[in-house]
Write a structure and sequence with these properties.
Layout: E1 4-8, E2 12-17, E3 22-31, E4 37-48, E5 55-58, E6 73-76, E7 79-82, E8 87-95, E9 103-113, E10 119-122, E11 124-126, E12 129-138, E13 146-152, E14 162-170, E15 179-186, E16 189-194, E17 205-212, E18 222-229, E19 235-241
Parallel strand pairs: 1-10, 2-12
Antiparallel strand pairs: 1-3, 3-8, 4-5, 4-7, 4-9, 6-8, 9-12, 11-12, 13-14, 14-17, 15-16, 15-18, 18-19
Length: about 240
């Protein structure tokens, strides 16, 4: 039975550009299957609406121009066939309109095997297809605002360990990857962990989970979140609970 395995060399493509700028680059797809695969490539907008960062490809023309970037991107070639073990380099160019809104704009190159049954791969998985995600920052006056929407643990539990749930909401115009630590301290316990680092899409929230302690833990505990975000990483995030 033929296996279908596809690898995308560059699952994330990041560019910071001025209105009116253009740039170009390459990405690559590798057929690690046991059979021949024909690919059809398209460029589409994507958004994130859940709290775990899943990119959702959306039909052309349906995303508001506030975040759209698909119309700015061209690719060549857009159709090709690869034998097992073969790879294909894809050239792309990005042309930012002169009137582009400052902030984040998002699109994806979607690699769709013409026969998609049983395709596995590494890359960004988008709607069961594989993609290279463009994170394009257009320079200019940008609103950056992240809030701690949730900072929660069970107020009482008989045994450890303790799960601390953090939810950060991005109220700004640009994707952001806050850096933060959580410290849990009590009479016989003091531990600090990093909050996992993930991009948070504009107008989306992201859930984070940290596990502290062991089975037997005595006492009252204080949990403190201290972090920062922003292009200069100088905007504060603080939360406390007991």
């Amino acid at each position: 039975e033929a296996t279908r395995v596809v690898t995308i060399a560059y699952p994330t493509l990041t560019h910071k550009l001025n209105p009116g700028d253009s740039t170009e680059g390459i990405t690559k797809v590798i057929n690690q299957s046991t059979g021949i695969l024909t690919f059809k490539l398209t460029v589409q907008d994507f958004i994130v609406t859940d709290t775990i960062g899943t990119p959702n490809i959306i039909p052309s023309g349906t995303l508001s121009n506030k975040y759209s970037a698909a119309a700015w991107i061209g690719i060549t070639p857009d159709t090709f066939t690869l034998k097992p073990g073969e790879s294909q380099k894809i050239n792309y160019y990005v042309r930012v309109p002169k009137d582009a809104r400052p902030g984040g704009h998002y699109a994806a190159i979607v690699y769709a095997p013409v026969t998609t049954e049983g395709v596995k791969g590494s890359g960004s998985t988008v709607n069961s297809q594989l993609g290279s995600l463009f994170y394009i920052t257009v320079n200019g006056p940008i609103n950056e605002q992240v809030s701690v929407a949730k900072f929660f643990a069970n107020p009482f539990q008989e045994y450890g360990p303790v799960s601390v749930l953090t939810q950060l909401k991005n109220l700004g115009d640009l994707h952001t990857a806050p850096k933060a630590t959580i410290t849990v301290s009590g009479l016989f316990f003091n531990q600090t962990q990093n909050l996992p680092t993930h991009n948070i899409f504009p107008e989306a929230a992201r859930d984070f989970s940290n596990i502290f302690g062991q089975n037997l833990m005595i006492g009252r505990y204080k949990a403190t979140l201290i972090g920062s975000y922003g292009a200069s990483n100088n905007l504060p995030l603080v939360a406390t609970m007991y």
